[in-house]
Design goal:
This protein is an alpha+beta fold and 399 residues long. Helices cover 28% and strands 29% of the residues. It has two domains: 279 residues, Rossmann fold (3-Layer(aba) Sandwich); 88 residues, no CATH class. The strands form three sheets. Strands 2-1-4-5-6-7-8-9 form an eight-stranded antiparallel β-sheet. A hairpin with a 2-residue loop joins strand 11 and strand 12. The longest helix is centred in the C-terminal third of the chain and has 23 residues. It is globular. 42% of the residues are buried.
Length: 399
Amino acid sequence: MLTRFRVNNFKSLLNFEFRPVGMNLVIGPNNAGKTNLCSALRFLGLTSQQTLDGAILSTLGERWNLTNLHVPNSAAIEFEAECRLAYGDEVLTFNYQLCLQARRGEIGEVQSLTVLQEVLKASGGRFAHTTLVENRGGQVRMLHEEGFVQKRPDSPYYAGARVPAESSMLSQLYELEDNPRAILFRRFLRSWAYYHLSPDHLRAPDVVRHDASLSSNGANLSRVLFALHNEKPRVEKKLIDITKLLEPRLDLFSFSSPDPEHVHLFVEDKAEHKLSARSISDGTLRFMGMIYIILMAEQEARAQGFSPLVIIEEPENGLYVGHLKPLIELTDESGKRGQFIFTSHSPYFIDLFDKTLEGIHILKPGHPSSVSMQPDPDKVRQMLNDMPLGEMHFREMLG
């Protein structure tokens, strides 16, 4: 589980630190930096599987204004993540640092990103802040972990390599027996997922051929539900049962796939009446998408042995307030079935975090950086006797 995230000189964030728990809510006014924090997390996760340029375009869709506007002469962007993961009988603390150079064109736009420094260290068991991977501008040294653990004299502890400076070393690692802990950390980083669901994309029957997962905007929903129907029918049944809170007549999903590029989703009642995805309400589609995300995070946690990090922006959009509580009750505040980060402006959704006050993070606009704070849980619990949490946020009483 992610325990600490620091980012420096990315958008409105300067030396910004975020300490998530199992269940997190990020709140604050517009332009406070909530989406910038989500983007920074999303970008770092994508660097483990894409080039730096591909990761930034997937995250933001452009290269403009990557660095903080108030520090115009600084081209270095820094990320740091700490997490705790189990490897066999060991519980390891990983520390990962990635420092990038933003190279600009004549009119100030960022033309490319390259790695200045990348370091992954592990602590716990036989490791004491031991460097697993070190990358300095493309010159890499990697620990032969099993030789190190077994203290084999015939095994060199570190091996050297060269990698392109336009990619992180983590994205280049082969799945070998020599570095299983570094691979474990990379799998965790690759589990980081970001969602801001759009009903138009959720309705689209177009198949995203290069990715079998649900896209961040909701595209590919028909395809992933079709796969669920064929591969995990019990999970599909659970999704349908929960969706009945909104659509009591829903009995099953059916699909039409006229060609490899399209999958059409239909919902049916017991009388075999069909509704296409275009006939389903925006709120129901978003609800279905979020249920799928939460259920699949639980599935991934069981399969991988660690909790994936899932970011969902403004889950309340298009939903009747009475359906927010059943949605949040699907999650586990300990983070064992998935570590969640939500952003929200809804006082009704904020109210649902009155039992998980340690996971509330308030962002405020600042100069030169967004500012983060956490309310004192004990003080907030006392105030809960007089008013709900969402009202406290509305009255700016949380900080």
